[in-house]
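Pipeline run #58 for the internal structure catalog. This entry was flagged by the ingest filter as a single-chain record with no existing model, so it goes straight to prediction. Upstream metadata was stripped on purpose; only the residue string is passed forward. Reviewer on rotation: M.T. Logging verbosity set to normal.
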Amino acid sequence: MAGATARILQVQAPQTPYAPGQRPAASAQAEALAGLAVSAIAEEARLSPKPGLVDSRGNGAHADLTLPLMLRSAHALGPSFAAMADAGLQAPRVGYGLREQLGALGREAEAVMLSATGGVNTHRGAIWCIGLLVGAAAHASTAGLGAGAGSISATAGAIASLADRHRPVLTGNKGELACLAYGVGGARAQARAGFPHVTRLALPALRRSRARGEPESTARLNALLALMSELDDTCVLARSGRPGLDFMQAGARAVLLAGGAGTVAGRRHLRSLDAGMLARRASPGGAADLLAATIFLDRLSQDRTAGVTAAKTAEKSGFRGL
């Protein structure tokens, strides 16, 4: 990572995204990464029971979201993630050109999302964090940095820390307004720091749960709860303020201290947390986005047949992902 970081200040010329329908076909390696990204987002959406969130039981604290809508949005983003992966593969270095290209592709992906959902914001945060990680994973593979979660998240942090001249100064979205109102860093700060809540909280919680022999769904719920216990989630702040955030963090810690989602006591606390989140109309969307990022990085690290390393084998076999 030191070599990549040292090259950050070398400026690349920004590249303009292709018009819709005019982008060349993505490489097999990019398609494989995009497939993992879409799967991670879809698997996060299906996971149940998630406190306050859309899942297989229902709409959670949302009046405008459903699981079918979330899944339609996730699958619509596949080509955008493939384009981000190709941008990472083709970038000679971690520099301003790559940052601005990923930013432009991210804004294009938001338009795709809104078109697929009829104007509903389903995955703006996921586009930001997963898009950065997809581009970083692709670039890390060309830089010989491998598919480890640490190197990918560090590369993503280096990309996110660079200025994008074309990014709106203020977007007016709820997460941004919550950052200003409550003095928290939000999704941008999390990315610039290299996703520490993913690498230091969620991934270890996921793997500890697996080591105890718990089902994958329980392991992922425990990873989500680890995120909820510490994250200053701007989605919760926007909906229910600081009291709602305090309730979420304390409730998630109570589940974990009771043994996690796999124990009888933990499940009892989880039901209480869910009921309280619904009563407050609080939905931990930021934690959900980071859980999707956790699933993506975990799959890259453990599933070499689908990850960056094995994608080169897919080139030879004609695999085209999505």
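catalog note: The chain has 15 helices and no strands.
catalog note: The radius of gyration is 19 Å.
status: ready for reviewer M.T.
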